[in-house]
């Protein structure tokens, strides 16, 4: 991989410096005395809220709303305190619960601000609705899917993230964890049988092939991995021990897994059903017919993946639409180039999964009994 350029280092320095304060890293050192700012976050309730009034942000044409809040802190170091301050963030009403940010500095200086409305109750409610629908309409297969998801999250949060944070190569870790997620998720969701094994081997082979291609694509495009504020802050917070290029690679590999499941399982089941329906079919005949099924699947999945990425990037696309630079210059920029490579490499993985899994399945499943796996499953 190419080393990060001086321009990228300077950019990450500027970005990291600009975001340290809102993320709670406050350290101001004076020549005569040390002034340390402390950030406290706590839950609070609005006791009184004035009507919102509009004002123009100084130096811009942006109109924002502001109000005066009187609040009571419900927990933390400031529990029981009642304070009044101006709020120009999310406008709140009397009785609303939210998280408040209290910054305490030297010389009795302090600042209060609304951090975020309290959303956990809403998130819990939506989550419960999701679980009920899974149980009602997904049945046992839906429960297995949830168990597979839980296993994948455990591997990500307790193996992938700690390993990368401690400086282990994100490339090696992501490939290893992706393979484990495939192994665990496949057998939990679809049971232990030859059809699942064929799909699992097809996915692992696709991950390896796509991983090699992604490695060279990132290298040839000379991507640095610094495409967001989060990357820059993480680089400073970990003293630069995390390989940002490797982290970009790992993100592409893990993001590829979801669509790979659908493609590989679909192809393995198609091969199984073809062998069951035509017991006299040769492996070559089944492969040809299964590939025809896979082509339809490829069209749908590639379109789904591309549209999903576009939907997630709408703010970026709108921002770029206002740019006066040429379209080619914009496409060449690292932020945009990174997303293009992410989309293309994931799409390449989906396409490769069809012939690779079909080939493996045709050699493994001839003469097997139907496994009972449903062919269309989005994990």
Number of continuous helical runs: 10
What sort of overall outline do the alpha carbons produce when their principal axes are compared?
A: elongated
How confident is the prediction overall: mean pLDDT?
Answer: 81
Annotated CATH architecture of the largest domain: Up-down Bundle
Structural class: alpha+beta
Query: CA-to-CA gap between the ends?
Result: 33 Å
Q: What percent of residues are in strands?
A: 5-15%
Low-confidence stretches: 1-34, 375-379
**Strand/helix succession:** HEEEEEEEEHHHHHHHHH
CATH topology name of the largest domain, in short, is: Multidrug efflux transporter AcrB transmembrane fold
Radius of gyration: 26 Å
Tally of discrete structural domains: 2
**Can you count the beta strands?**
8
How would a crystallographer describe the biggest sheet?
6 strands, antiparallel
Name the helicity range.
55-70%
- Level-1 CATH class name of the largest domain: Mainly Alpha
